């Protein structure tokens, strides 16, 4: 069966033919490649077409597809341990690794980024005994009801303002702030300060395309939270172990989040999430405390094994980040140069192996409004052109593309050669 017949058949059994909306390439009006296999920086579809992959499963594949250490860990573990629903040593190993890296006391494993962020919010509310949460426009924290307001990413690409099926009572405690805008945040704190349980932020945003907050903004955000008894949650589901080994903790050393959420990379490509923080907060979780959160599959041995293999590899070989920075710089500079020659106006935001090419006449993209003003028609043409040339990119202006250790100079050259023949 070719891509089209598989996808048409899938549409009969799976809504939209996909298990997560963005994969359908609905905006592009084409059949998505049906992916059969992947190795290193390459993926292959059912028609055996090869693509250099810059999606990387939306972030997790920082070691490339089917990295041998990860494959071995999954294979070996599967021979003796698939699921018990009981404590295992593997959970301890990953928990220790994550706590040491993030400088936190305790962590709880869950099965997805969504679960991590929604549980962190509940914990923050339980700890502070307050109701309101502040999120930033353009940040995505998963599909929990309370977050589906100005949620960027796939929610944005679908053109739906949030989602149907959410009673307004579920979002009445969600306050949306402007990213990189400390005055706006101060106003919000003035209005609601003694009822704000937490502020949740992507410390490097990736879900409105890559947007970096200023150091000043982050430090003031931290101060505002501390002064108002509000917890600060770093949602590092995407940027954790991605922008640097220690994630946003490394980029903003003076900012001390109370809770951190993880996902994506920490599961090595298997379904995983985690949230952690200070002991006095984490010990409010059941069975120790009154905040209930559970999961039949949480801490699954195969997931833990893949996560440990990935995080250990990153820990032992931190020149991985140097390589990613080197090829990232080359790619960024190359695209800028070619764009200039062709009179295509772009802004490129990149932090380590997370990058977005914004098609815009603006000089900078610093928030959701800036991102939304970009030219999605040019983006669509660019995406289709690159896909045709065997370069797999995220199919939206409001997503990050990802680099991995397996991307070579040659892959970057091929990207740039493909981009050279792009015309708007
Ligand atoms: C992907 C993502 C999530 C949601 O994770 P899922 O595993 O898709 O539920 C949450 N927050 C951020 C920042 C993400 O990038």
From TrEMBL:
Enzyme Commission (EC) number: 5.4.3.8
UniProt xrefs under InterPro entries: 4pyrrol_synth_GluAld_NH2Trfase (IPR004639), Aminotrans_3 (IPR005814), Aminotrans_3_PPA_site (IPR049704), PyrdxlP-dep_Trfase (IPR015424), PyrdxlP-dep_Trfase_major (IPR015421), PyrdxlP-dep_Trfase_small (IPR015422)
Chemical reaction(s) catalysed: (S)-4-amino-5-oxopentanoate = 5-aminolevulinate
Taxonomic superkingdom: Bacteria
Cellular component terms per the entry's GO annotation: cytoplasm
N6-(pyridoxal phosphate)lysine modifications at: 264
Oligomeric form and interacting partners: Homodimer.
Protein name in the entry: Glutamate-1-semialdehyde 2,1-aminomutase
Organism: Clostridium sulfidigenes
Lineage start: Bacteria, Bacillati, Bacillota, Clostridia, Eubacteriales
